[in-house]
Amino acid sequence: MNTTATQTKSATRAATDAVDDAIESCMSNRLPGGGLKADKMPGHWLLARLGKRVLRPGGRAMTQALLENLSIGRSDHVVELAPGLGLTAALILSKHPSSYIGIERDRDAAAWTSGRLPTAANVTVRVGSAEDTGLPSESASLVIGEAMLSMAPSDHKRRIMEEAFRVLKPGGCYAIHELSLVPDDIAAPVKQDIEAALAAAIHVGARPMTTAEWCAFLREAGFTIEKVAHAPMALLQPARIIADEGLFRALRFAWNVLTSPDARRRVFLMRGTFHRHRAHLGAISIVARK
Can you name the CATH fold of 3-289? Predict the structure, then answer.
């Protein structure tokens, strides 16, 4: 990467982080999960309330690489399914697409994301279902979804992929960033053990799939696979946290974890689960075309 590109990327991240920090102080009480205790809260919202912003299995780097592969431009109409805290939405909008629509089923998450994105006629976050967005057929050139299909049962995965296919214009791309299982021939009992361990740790039913399974589901929905990339699933490893959040935010997250006993137990349980199954857990991104 040349010096100019590196400086541009650094400036973009710095600008995004500055906006995040300015908004967080007045919006933190609107994060989902506020009415739940730490031992009952879904893991991703617990991490968010502790200050963890990047909640994607392959980290910020995989998200950025995925967006670079899509070459988002001013003519694109982008739909993001389950935008969560809006980090990817901010990165998408830095590419100046023609329009952006986020579809978020959690009302609190939708309000959070709306509050941290520019107020513009071409930027919308709606409360809705990824399986039935209500959007017109063939209205988007790009559909993006991260860390959401992994939490859905197989029939829901299929319906979400079919909805993405319906919404996309011919030639449009569907990009996903999800948990993966390795190897492709992983034994069924091992897969079941991982699913049970993840559900106990994060309090959300997680059903990651192998690379072959992810690609097969996308092909069944009508897509052609264009690019597949892999990364370690290192969400709660210190080096990944610093890379994703920056040193200051990483230290703030660590302080919040260490000074909250209930949250600390949950975070250590999640980290231990990811570490114990590290030989079979990874992150995957796929770009598929209609």
Answer: Rossmann fold (3.40.50)
